[in-house]
């Protein structure tokens, strides 16, 4: 069939042509926005799940929903070695620019922008040369004595409180979206929790919507014990059969193409319901098929091609980031976890490698920092990428 008309879109954070299976999460967020608009207390949201389940796509869709309601929004992607001061400043600057034209008192908006600038510039060392100092691009003087103490927790609480005040004045809200939230530095995690706690107590119209790997709730809980009650956690998992079929059928039918039932069976078995894999197998199957309806035979022909592409782009690119010691650790995990990629005990990995657990801690910790594995629970380790264990078992070298 015509590859130009191929509707499927496997890509990192790329919205699929049919966002299937996420109606519950979208409806829950609409309720959050409506409750806040009516002055009701509401918790910030945290989306968790493995890689490839569509967390970033859903995060972007939630942001679109907030924008459609006239909210100010900003989005950042956390990085392990980066302070949140700069990205949060940029995100809030964007949110305030969206709300600014609707605010009658431009002087008060300018005051808050001055606070944002002061918060951002606090990251600059006092001894840094002028040319080396980062500037947030805000055309107002930096405020003094507000959000500039150098204590991240104090400063972030003051900053978000002031920003929420601008939104409250016009009967709107601000939503700060944070992707890869598990990579935020510990002090910044504590600051976010403290700020969300304060905003919730005030009933302020500002929420944080985060997305991260399955261990993100544990990261937040380790920072502040009350985080379990502070956020509403939504687990994003693979699609059920009905949703996976809709993700394939709906875009195809818009191109006057359909699938035979056996083809849908084969595609669900291959993709295992993971949204990224659904798109990857769907795209290759479309290109292989000669005509509509697409058959199970087409899927059989397409599967090796799709698996080869995933082996290079989805699995291989991650595997290549690991050191020899880390690869040895992951191969041991794969042998113990089997095709299902089950979580395994760190002690079992040590036994399998004939090593003391303490000697493997550097490799394990590095794999966690690289986002390749996560601590499923105390003493347990699992892959962040679905089917990664299967990939390693098929590629032993």
TrEMBL record:
The keyword Cell membrane does not apply. Gene3D superfamilies: P-loop containing nucleotide triphosphate hydrolases (3.40.50.300). Residues 1-22 are annotated as: Disordered. Keywords: Heme, Iron, Metal-binding. It comes from the Bacteria. GO terms for molecular function: electron transfer activity; heme binding; metal ion binding. Pfam families: AAA_16 (PF13191). Residues 168-334 form the Cytochrome c domain. InterPro entries: AAA_16, Cyt_c-like_dom, P-loop_NTPase. This is Cytochrome c domain-containing protein.
